Amino acid sequence: MKTLTKTLTHRLTAILLAMMLALSLLSACGGGEVGVNGQNGRESEITVKNPAVEIPENPASDFEYKKDYTNFGRFGVSITKYIGTETKVNIPKQIEGQSVIELDSDSFRGNEMITSVHIPDSVFFIEGGAFMQCSLLTDVTIPSSINFIDGSMFLGCTSLTSITIPNSIIEIQKDAFAACTSLASITIPDSVVRIGDNAFQGCTSLNSITIPDSVTDIGRVAFGGCTSLTNITIPDSITVISGNMFIGCTSLTSITIPDSVTEIGNYAFERCTSLTSITIPNSVAIIGNSTFDGCTSLTIRGYTGSRAENFAAENNIPFAVLD
Question: What pTM was computed for the model?
Fold first, then answer.
């Protein structure tokens, strides 16, 4: 009997110790959920979810808004201005029982306090200038319900370092990221067909960008003044290098124009002072005025009898013949 009592005591003690250990693990994880994944008694993987990490939706009182709003056949709420004090904003999906469908052009414009904004997938339209000159904004979540990066949307967001554009975006419009001086990298998805005028003008930290084959049109001055840009790939879906497209890209060292291009616009590469080599194919029939002004170290590479060769001779630019 003593032996049985002693065995039961040992088992109860072991169970209590196990329970105490489990409670201490839960406490160490900040009170979050602990999930254990394992099979057949093998070593398990512990996944910790801390609900405190997620930012709750801001209350309706943090916004000025219009109810019963209709746009492009959608019905709901348009947020006209953020009046809250939180620096990290999580826009609610609904206000007063109606879906939030739009951010007005003044919703966050000129806000010098916010650092991050999460936009719900109920929003299908963001007006141009909505985040213009939000000088401390570093992070924005754009939902896949959005099809356009509207004009001047992030113009002058000088703290924005990177942004992921969802593959629902068709067009990046005029001045969309102009003067985002901290923007170092950006990924353009292959859903984008057009990049508007001045879209990335003055993004002085942008050092490289890959343009997908889906893009068929790039506007004037699209990358003008991107002084850190060293490398760019122009896809063979482009037929025209627009005027001033790379003006003042002082770190750009070389570039190859694809065979699809037939025209290089005026001032396209003006003041690209580090540009030493550009390859121009036979397909290019028009090269505009002052295209390479200020490119003092440049050699044009092309074919005998091409427009590139004639242009080089007319403008006293060294020319290297391609085989």
Answer: 0.81
